[in-house]
User: Which sequence fits this backbone?
């Protein structure tokens, strides 16, 4: 399947700038395996499945722990040490950024989905890749058998900054939708005790699958960015076991075994001009709490202060271009 390369990860790194011809094989248990493209692998079990599952990583190329988790899951599926009980599409999103150990090469890929890639230079690798990934996912869902009645997408990440809450999920906004109990149970199974509920549509990969493909989707932040080979994968056993259970066909529990705290976005921080000022320290952790009245940013006569109750910050990053998001302010639900 991967030619001279030992595994899915090594093949993805080696073929980033090559044309990858689709290849197909059938495992001894009857599982069909299709390598569609560099970093895009499809598993179809012989037995009827009720779930279409997309597991993606490396939308940001330097977020290596999820990549290593996916590598190991794929290896065990191909070695038939892990049962293929559901159909799965595995994606390693940004092989060029992976090769240079950077978040991205030209443009943040996780701002290009839900069709937003059409607003960028389509000669850029990441723009082309976002369009192709949307198509692969759409085809995967469109070709599901009639037995399938559930669609899930888990987009795996690690964060640039440390966090007061090490692992958390981001649940994309879809009008009229609420977070199902079984998805909270999945988060709890994955040792994720916090979920951030978005309040408007976005252009992330998980937003695309939620909005356009009607999947239950999450961006999952699983820890902090580290180089390849420096991750303690023992810290990721929760998500690893939760994904393996799903792939094997184990049903999700009806309710979480532990409390999952919910936060809602109350303000999206955007860099509004070259004169924009940010008052959050560079070493602030995700989910740092700020008291009512705290000044967060100012641009001339415009400013944002924390409202009447405490707020929490996630993804603070003032070093983005004008017009781009520099963080989110949250309230506990």
Assistant:
């Amino acid at each position: 399947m991967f030619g001279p390369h030992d595994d899915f990860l090594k093949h993805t790194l080696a073929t980033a700038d090559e044309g990858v011809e689709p290849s197909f094989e059938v495992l001894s248990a009857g599982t069909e395996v299709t390598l569609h493209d560099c970093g895009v692998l499809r598993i179809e079990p012989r037995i009827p499945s009720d779930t279409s599952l997309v597991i993606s990583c490396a939308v940001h190329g330097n977020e290596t722990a999820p990549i290593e988790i996916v590598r190991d899951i794929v290896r065990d599926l191909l070695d038939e040490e892990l049962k293929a009980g559901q159909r799965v599409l595995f994606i390693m999103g940004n092989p060029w950024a992976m090769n240079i150990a950077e978040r991205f090469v030209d443009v943040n890929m996780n701002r290009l989905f839900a069709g937003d890639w059409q607003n960028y230079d389509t000669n850029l690798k990441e723009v082309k890749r976002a369009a192709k990934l949307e198509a692969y996912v759409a085809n995967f869902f469109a070709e599901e058998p009639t037995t399938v009645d559930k669609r899930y997408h888990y987009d795996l990440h690690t964060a640039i900054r440390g966090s007061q809450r090490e692992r958390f999920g981001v649940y994309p906004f879809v009008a009229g939708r609420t977070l199902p109990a079984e998805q909270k149970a999945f988060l709890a199974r994955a040792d994720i005790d916090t979920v951030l509920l978005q309040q408007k549509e976005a252009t992330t990969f998980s937003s695309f699958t939620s909005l356009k493909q009607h999947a239950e989707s999450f961006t999952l932040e699983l820890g902090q960015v580290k180089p390849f080979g420096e991750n303690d994968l023992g810290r990721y056993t929760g998500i690893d076991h939760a994904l393996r259970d799903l792939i094997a066909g184990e049903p999700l529990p009806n309710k979480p075994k532990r409390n999952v705290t919910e936060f809602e976005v109350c303000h999206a921080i955007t860099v509004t001009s070259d004169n924009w000022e940010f008052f959050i320290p560079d070493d602030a952790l995700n989910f740092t709490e700020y008291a009512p009245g705290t000044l967060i940013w100012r641009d001339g006569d415009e400013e944002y202060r924390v409202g009447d109750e405490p707020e929490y910050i996630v993804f603070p990053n003032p070093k983005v271009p004008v017009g781009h998001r520099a963080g989110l302010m949250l309230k506990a639900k």
Summary: The mean pLDDT is 95. Residues 61 and 113 are 16 Å apart (CA to CA). The two ends are 47 Å apart (CA to CA).
